[in-house]
Amino acid sequence: MWKDNTAIKRAAAKEEQVWINPDLLPAKEAFEKLNITMANIEDAERRLDRFAPFIMKCFPETEERNGQIESPLVPVPGMQSVMEEKHGAKLSGRLLLKQDSHLAIAGSVKARGGIYEVLKHAEELALTHGRITENSNYADLASAENREFFGNYTVQVGSTGNLGLSIGIMSAALGFRVIVHMSADAKQWKKDLLREHGVIVKEYESDYSMAVKEGRKLSDQDPMSYFVDDENSVNLFMGYAVAAKRLKKQLEEQKIPVDAEHPLFVYIPCGVGGAPGGVSFGLKQVFGDHVHCFFAEPVQAPCMLVGMASGLHDRICVQDIGLSGRTEADGLAVGRPSSFVGGVMTHLLSGIFTIQDEHLYPYMRELEETEGIFIEPSACAAFEGPAKLLCYPESQAYIREHGLEGKLGQAVHIAWATGGRLVPESVRAEYRKR
Ligand SMILES: *Cc1c(COP(=O)(O)O)cnc(C)c1O
Questions:
Q1: Which one, of 28, 73, 405, lies nearest residue 254 by Cα?
Q2: Nearest residue CA, atom 14 of ligand 1?
Q3: What is the model's pLDDT at position 79?
Q4: How far apart are CA 115 and CA 59, in angstroms?
Q5: Among candidate residues 387, 413, 321, the one with its CA nearest the CA of residue 7
Q6: Which residues line ligand 1 (CB under 6 A)?
Q7: Nearest CA-CA partner of 275 in 311, 300, 239
């Protein structure tokens, strides 16, 4: 019975913890149970390549990467020292930061999945109506006639903020009519920015699940409308998964090996699960058992932990165990997890760390002080993993059971910074005072 599960009891008590996934399997065995593969990731990768000329044309900020939306991977030794001194982290390997916080166009990890799904939808429409072939130069999609064509169609999405930004900005660039259904947690500046792009923003006083439900209902009533379904979308998921192949290249360029002697640990903040799930699925495909994927969630909204630890996935929400689902980490303010992602991650995920809101801000300040990098509070949850990996008895046991004790000196830990670049200076100043 899930009520007797220790991790769920701790979650109900709002305790910070690590939950170690008892169902983790060797990657090969886990993949045999799934019907999505590396071929799906490669398909997504090729589609993004086809769109690169279009992206470069509409968003000149992507020129230096030839229309590829990708972020830097950087060592953060100053942050690592602070974490060791102040937070008792005992990492003997190296800590790196994956700066999806600085991705072009949307300034968050959503620039992967969200933008990919909009592009895929646009491609399908344009191919079906003979406006392009797969061999066309997709920069042509930015023409006045094609924009007018896309203007006949609507794209809708429910969001806590960042997904809305990525879907909204890219849909508007193509010429789609676009409606973003924002949950109560969404920050005002994100709504303002979207309206500047000509996006219709509908505001709800309810949480993310309700915003999604309303958006889906309205979209379903309109045959010309497409709903981006963050809770179930395989497209979004594959857009995120492409990150893994790009990361492999970055690690190679930086001469950082990942193999049996050099384990890779990755820590990714989790909301509904699509972003961390997609990235982790990709990483397991690329690195197999040499990568250990952990999610991070706020103590008031640990939806994936509750869904996976109970095995109930989207049949349970954090409110069912007495939590509010309210958190300063707006990007993670999700009460009910994606059952699709929970299912895919059942045998691939190593575990989940939870963190109290008040512990996000010190990480935020320390990163800015030591490395001069600003990331938003949601993204700071990523640091809880490397800080506590060698502190909790459960994760210590994980290290022992996987024979990793002697290899930690050569290990690499990646904190996945999921958002921040677009946060206005006035909002940053407020955060710094917290
Ligand atoms: C959306 C988001 C996440 C988590 O992504 P999910 O797909 O909702 O799990 C993490 N961090 C930030 C900043 C986000 O905006």
A1: 73
A2: 331
A3: 98
A4: 13
A5: 321
A6: 108-110, 162-163, 269-276, 331-332, 334, 376, 378-379, 418-419
A7: 239
d(CA 259, CA 117): 32
Say how many residues make up the chain: 434
| Cα 297 to middle of ligand 1, angstroms | 10
**Nearest residue CA, atom 2 of ligand 1?**
331
* Full-model pTM: 0.97
Could you list the mean pLDDT of each consecutive 10-residue stretch along the chain, which spans 434 residues? Answer: 93 98 98 98 98 97 97 98 92 95 96 97 98 95 97 95 94 97 89 94 89 94 95 95 98 98 98 97 98 98 98 97 95 95 98 98 98 98 97 97 97 98 96 92
Bridge partners, residue 293, by sequence = 266
d(CA 415, ligand 1 centre) in Å: 14
User: What's the gap in Å between 418 CA and the centre of ligand 1?
Assistant: 7
Task: Tell me the C-alpha distance between 140 and 121, whole Å.
Answer: 16
Distance between Cα 109 and ligand 1 center (Å): 7
Q: Which atom of ligand 1 is nearest to the CA of 240?
A: 7
Ligand 1 centroid – CA 49 distance (Å): 24
Using N-to-C axis directions, what is the helix angle for 110-128 and 234-253, rounded to 10°? Answer: 120
- CA 334 to ligand 1: nearest atom: 8
Strands lying side by side in the sheet with 154-159: 200-203, 177-182, 154-159, 225-228
Helix (H) or strand (E) holding 395: helix 393-401
For 265-289, write each residue's pLDDT tens digit: 999 999 999 999 999 999 999 999 9
Mutation choice for ligand 1 from 98, 101, 108, 228, CB with most ligand atoms inside 8 A: 108
CA–CA gap between residue 355 and residue 264 (Å, rounded) = 22
Backbone CA torsion sign across 397, 398, 401, 406: negative
Which is nearest to 208 in space by CA: 230, 236, 190, 240? 230
- Is residue 165 within 8 Å of 108, Cβ to Cβ? yes
User: How far is C-alpha 68 from the chain's CA centre?
Assistant: 18
